[in-house]
Design brief:
Rossmann fold; elongated; alpha/beta; about 40% helix
């Protein structure tokens, strides 16, 4: 076992060294992308902009090699493809799937442009000392979901019962744990509805309304990104104010969204890429947490629901859809 660990460490060291020594060719940066395709992904554009501001020129100092899928289930297969293409490092442009792909990427530097609970899920040892081949941005944590619950309770005074749509998996286990802890602080009762497929969405929302939910919330997943418009419309039909993470959900019709500025995190991830290309090891680069959060309100949805959004929320909103 010690021999195998030593061999893996030597292989990783050689790859890290190779990155810093490859000045005679553009660095090949692998991208693991789910959700929007790479050319349409705001995170990829932000990463490209961050690299440009650090003096990198696409095609001269680096090239992107993207592996894309609509599903996080494909991450191990996508990771294997990038390894076979001999990329110098990998940037994960998704908060999901890295745990499942960790083994495939064990010998390559990895930068998380977005991540969820990286310590609890075994991706890194700690934020200050990642301790392996992975570093970057810890986008989602318990504090994020506590703040999200606070915004929801402030937006809907008198709220008592909230239905939460979640996906299966350990990441959602952590999210629900922290939502429940925050709900107790604000005197809210949660009903957790677990989903596996998109055809379970409509029955779950119907069940939430039938059981007396006063609002509908989602956890974090590319599944909810893809189905945001459906969830917003179904919630509206049942007179349920809907609440989610990324600002895209407000554009899709949800009442309110609150979460980390994902684009800003992706921009900041460029600094990790830059330092690794110059010879730094991921184990020595502390993982950062979000500095900026986004609050979006859809007043068209509020009007249809008859909800008067408090002025304190509107004054803090980064985006108001009228």
């Amino acid at each position: 076992m010690r021999f195998l660990l030593a061999c893996r460490a030597l292989l990783a060291l050689s790859l890290f060294t190779a990155v810093s020594q490859a000045a005679d060719r553009p660095a090949r940066i692998g991208l693991l992308v789910t959700g929007p395709k790479p050319d349409e992904h705001a995170c990829v554009r932000a990463l490209r902009g961050g690299l440009a501001d650090l003096g990198h020129v696409e095609g001269r100092t680096y090239v992107f090699d993207a592996a894309w899928s609509a599903s996080n289930d494909d991450m191990p297969r996508m990771s294997t493809k990038l390894v076979q293409r001999r990329v110098d490092l990998v940037v994960t442009v998704t908060a999901q799937g890295l745990v499942e792909a960790k083994q495939e990427l064990a010998a390559i530097p990895v930068v998380m442009a977005a991540s969820s609970y990286p310590v609890e899920r075994g991706l890194i040892t700690s934020l200050s000392r990642p301790g392996g081949n992975i570093t970057g941005i810890a986008t989602f944590s318990g504090d994020v979901y506590a703040k999200r619950m606070q915004v929801l309770s402030e937006t809907l005074p008198g709220l008592q019962r909230v239905a939460v749509l979640r996906m299966r998996g350990d990441m959602n286990d952590f999210i629900v744990r922290d939502l429940e802890a925050a709900a107790r602080r604000f005197g809210l009762m949660l009903r957790i509805l677990e989903l596996g497929e998109s055809d379970e969405l409509a029955p779950a929302i119907e069940a939430a309304a039938r059981d007396g939910a006063q609002a509908l919330m989602t956890t974090q997943s590319t599944f909810f990104y893809r189905h945001a418009a459906f969830i917003a419309q179904a919630a509206l039909r049942h007179r349920l104010p809907s609440f989610s993470g990324g600002p895209f959900a407000a554009d899709a019709g949800m009442l309110i969204t609150f979460g980390p500025d994902l684009v800003a995190g992706c921009y900041r991830s460029a600094s990790f890429v830059d330092r690794i290309l110059k010879g730094a090891k991921p184990a020595d680069l502390p993982v950062e947490q979000p500095l900026k959060f986004e609050l979006s309100v859809n007043l068209k949805t509020a009007k249809q629901l008859g909800v008067a959004v408090p002025g304190s929320i509107l004054l803090r909103a980064d985006k108001v859809i009228e």
